[in-house]
UPF0145 protein FC84_GL000811
Amino acid sequence: MECGKMIITTTNAVQDCEVSEYQGIVFGEVITGINMFKDIGAGLRNLVGGRSKGYEDELTKAREEAINEMGHRAEKLGADAVIGMKMDYEVLGSDNGMLMVTCSGTAVKLR
């Protein structure tokens, strides 16, 4: 890996790079609604078995958006990387119709 690009990793270090400065903790949050048509499809799959492509796609999209948001916040701090990234998922709302994806990590400068 090249040390000049924004790197986001779950590890506490970046291979072949040295942390020169800690910029602080950064977060990415996304809350998304699951629509009625995906709910109907998921309900049918629960009856007959199988995977819910609609929910999987929504989860993938939310995860990518949260990581991108965290990366942009790290860039605003002048960071080259985010280390120690962690991700969490939660279902929200009175009818469990919202999905929240959050991630956090430490923004760092590399040399």
Q: What stands out?
A: The mean pLDDT is 84. Residues 28 and 102 are 6 Å apart (CA to CA). Residues 7-110 form a domain with the Translation Initiation Factor IF3 fold (CATH 3.30.110.70).
